[in-house]
Amino acid sequence: GPTIRTLRDLLGCRPGPAEGTVQSLDRLSSALAQVCADGPHVIVLEDLHRADDMTLRAWNHLLSLAHRLPVLLVSTCSPLPYRESLSHLRESARRTGAEMVYLRPLSDADIIKLAADRLRATPAARLARYLRAVRGNPGAAVSLMTALDAAGLLERPAEAGDSAADHVDVAPEAENSSRILRDHALHDIPDDQRHILQVAALQRARFDATEVACAGDLPLPAVAAALANATDLGILRTEDDRLVFRMEAVRTACAQRLPSTERQRFHQAAALRLAAWGSRPQSVAYHLNAAGELPIQAIGWRAGLTEATLLSEPALFSTVLHMPPTDYRAPMLDYWLGDYDTALKTVLGLVDDVHADSTLLRLSVRALIRSGRYEEAAALPETTRDPHLGAWQAIALTASGDLTGARALIRDLAPPHGNMLAAAALVHACVATGWDIPTPADVVAARDALDDGGEASELRALLQADLVALLAQTGPAESLTAALADVTPDAAATPAWAAYLAGHWDTATELDPDVAAVIAMRRAKPEDAPATDRLPRADHISHEAEAIRAENAGRLEEALELRRQALAEALRTHPVALHGAEHVLRLAEATGAEADAAYAVAACAQAAADEGLPVQVAIAALVKAMAQHDIVSLLDATQACGEHGAILQQAHGLEQAAVWLADAGDRRGATRTLREAVTLYATAGATWDIARADTRLQERGVRRRTPADQPSSGWAALTPAECRVVRLVVMGLSDKAIAAELFLSQNTVHSHLARIRGKLGLRSRIDIARAVDFQVEKCEEAARPGRNAGLPG
Which of 360, 456, 547, 708 is deepest in the core (most CB within 10 A)? Predict the structure, then answer.
C-alpha cells in the first residue's frame, strides 16, 4: 500500500534529520505549494485501505490545503476491511467539501461480459466460477485473467465446428489454478493472518474460531480477528453459526500449502487437542480420518461415543473408527450406511445364536426388510412373546403380500407395556396392514414419544410417512401440507403417493422418482407426454403411467384394463384413498364396459364401509353418482372430495358435471363448471387432465375463454401457504416464530421464503416487508381459511 515515502516521492520532498510528525507535515505542505506554483496538478493515491496511519494522517493534512491551491487530490480505497482511521479520514474530507464517489461492485453477468470482451471468447464454467470469486471487482478480474494466462492455464477447446470453440476455460491443472486463485483471494490478508487461514482450511468445511484456535494451538483473539477480517473481505461467509470458505478451490489451495506428511501430523495433533478440549466428536473424527490412523490415545475416546453420536454421521465414523467386528456398533453403522448384507453378516458373527439377543434380531429383521428379503424376515422364529419384534415381522409380512398373516400376527401380540419403541413399531404395523387403523392423533403421539437416534429415528420417519398417508385421506389440507414438510426421503414411497393423491405434486416429485414419472405425464400435454419405459414397479403407480400412455395413443380398452388393475392394487394396500376409480368410470362409459363400472362402484362402496375414512366415503359417493348419472349427488360428492383433500377427484367430478350440462344444452353452466375444474387441475399443473377436459367439452361445443395456467411469478403466483408466511414476515416474526405459528418446521419456512423471494424477485425479508405494503389486502384474502376450500395450501 502507499506510504509516507510515496507522498514524499510524488512531491519531491526529502525528510530532514530527526524530523518529527509536525515538521514532516509542514515539509509536505511546503512541497505541495511549490509543485502547484508551476500550474494546476492532479495527484492520485490508490489503495488507501492498505496505507499506514501516518500516511492517512499526511493525506488528510494535504486535503485540508487543497481548496487553497490549484490541485486536485484523488484517492481510492476499498470499504473492507473496516478501519476506524479511514472512517475518520472520509468524515474529515466531507467537511472540507470533498466529493465522495461510490463504485458499486459489478454484477456477475457484467464481470463475465468484461472477461468475454477481453478474451474475445465466452468464459466456460470453471473460469466463470473463478471470476465470480473476485466479488465484482473489475481490476481483480483483469488481474486474475492475466495471472492465469501468464501461467498458461487458459485454454480454448479444439473441437472444430463446435460452438464450444468460442469458449475459454481454466485448464485442468487444478493445483496451479487454485494457487493463483488463492493468491488473489488472500491479496489483502496480512502475512501473520495467512497462517491462521491455512489452519482454518484444514478444518471441516464448516468451522468456528474456537475449533481453529484449539486445533492449531493458536491464541483465540488473534484467530477471531483473522477470521473476521477474512469474512469482511469475502473469503469466508457465515452459515448459521459457523464459517465456510466461499470457494472450495481457495480452501483446498490454502490447505495444500502444507506438505502432505506435515498435514497428517497436524491432523493427528489437532484430533488429540480437540478430544482433550471436549470438542464436537465429528470434528475429532474428521481430523482422525485425515490423519489416516487412530492413535492409542484416541481409543478411549472412541469407546465413549454414544449411538446417537455415531448415527449423526455414520459414514464419517465408520470410515474413521474402524470398529472391530466384536463391537455391536459395527453392524448398526453398516445398517445406517445401507450396507444391509454386511450388517447381517456382522450380526451373525457377534453371537452364536442371533435369536438370543432381541436387539440384534430386530436389526436383522429391519435389514432384511430394507434389502427386500421380506419372506426371510417374516420366517424368523417365534415372536408372539415380543411385541416389538412381532411388529417388525408383521411389517415384513405385509410387504411380502401376506396381509392376512400380518393382521393375525398383530392380533396375537402382547401389549407393549410402556416400551415406546415397541408401541411405535406396533402403530406403524397397524397403519401398514390396515388393522385397527390408528387416527392421525395416535400416530403423532407415538412419533413424539420417541427420542432421536437409532431405531427411534427410523420409526419417527416411518410414522411421519404414515401420518401423511392418513392425512391425505382424512384432511385437513393444511395439516397434510405441514406433515409433508417433515417427511424424509428415507421413507419416501408412501408419502410420495399420498402427496400425489392430495395434489402436492412438487413435493411428490422430490420424494419418489416413480411417482415423478407419472406426474411428468400428467403435467405434459397428451402429444408431448414423455415416452418413458415401463416403470419397474408392478403396482398402481406403474399401472397408472401405462394407462396414461395407452389413453394418449387412443387405446381406451387397454387404458381401462390398466386403470382397473391400478384400482385393485390400491384396494389391496391399506389404508388407501380410492384413487383412480373416477377414471375407471369415465373409461367404462366411453367403452361401454358396464361390468367394469359396476366393479369400481361396488369395490369403493365396500372399502368405504369397511374403513370409513372420510375421503373414501366421498370418492365412493362420487363414482356412484357418476355411474347413476346423478348430477345433484355428483356435485355434493365433489364438494366433499374437496373438503377432504381429494383435489383431483373434485376436479374430475366437476369435469363430468360440465359434460352432462353440455349434453343437456346448458352451455353457460357447462363453461362455468369447466373453468372450476380446470382451475383445480391447474393447482397441481395437471396439463394432461386440462387438455382431456377441454377436448371432451369441445366435442360438445363448449370452449373456455380464459386461460387456467397459474402465473409463475409476481404476487398472483403465491400460494395461500406462501401468503400466510408473507403476512407473518410483515408482522416481524422470526423464522422460528413463523414455524411455531403455522405448525411447520423451520426448514419448511426457509423453503417458503426462498420460493417467495424467487417469485417476487426480492432478495431479503426486509424487501418482502417493504414490497408488501400495497399488497396486504390481497395476501390477507388469499390466506383466509375459506379461500379455495380444500385446495392444498
Answer: 547
β-pairing verdict for 236-239 and 242-245: antiparallel
Other beta carbons less than 10 A from residue 75's beta carbon? 20
> Cα angle vertex 545, ends 540, 551, to 5°?
120
| Successive 10-residue mean pLDDT values, the chain, 793 residues | 80 73 83 88 86 86 87 84 79 85 85 88 84 79 81 67 64 66 75 89 92 93 90 83 84 84 91 90 90 82 81 79 68 80 75 60 81 77 69 82 80 81 87 77 88 80 82 69 72 64 72 77 72 50 81 90 85 67 92 92 87 81 93 91 80 94 91 89 83 91 65 72 82 82 75 82 77 53 41 29
For residue 750 the three cell numbers come to 426457509
Give the separation between CA 435 and CA 433, rounded to whole angstroms: 5
User: Does the predicted TM-score (pTM) go above 0.85?
Assistant: no
Comparing C-alpha atoms, which of 345, 338, 577 is closest to residue 472?
Answer: 577
Phi, psi of 318 (to 5 degrees): -65, -40
φ, ψ of residue 45 in degrees (nearest 5): -125, 115
Are 541 and 515 contacting, i.e. CB atoms less than 8 angstroms apart? yes
Give the residue carrying C-alpha cell 400425489. Answer: 500
Burial of 316 (0-12, 13-18, 19+ CB in 10 A): middle
C-alpha distances in angstroms, 139 versus 105, 115, 143, 188, 627? 11, 11, 6, 14, 74
Residue 105 in grid coordinates? 461492485
Residue 42 has phi, psi (to 5 degrees) of -120, 125
What single DSSP character describes residue 576? -
CA dist 59 and 50 (Å) reads: 13
Q: Quick check: 387 and 394 in contact, CB under 8 A?
A: no
Size of the chain, expressed as the number of residues it contains: 793
Chain-centre distance for alpha carbon 575: 30
Three cell numbers, residue 522? 400428467
450 Cβ partners below 8 Å, 6+ apart?
A: 420, 421, 424, 456, 457, 459, 460, 463
Q: How far apart are CA 153 and CA 531, in angstroms?
A: 43
75: Cβ–Cβ under 8 A, 6 or more apart, which residues?
A: 44, 45, 46, 48, 59
Rounded CA separation 232/564 (Å): 64
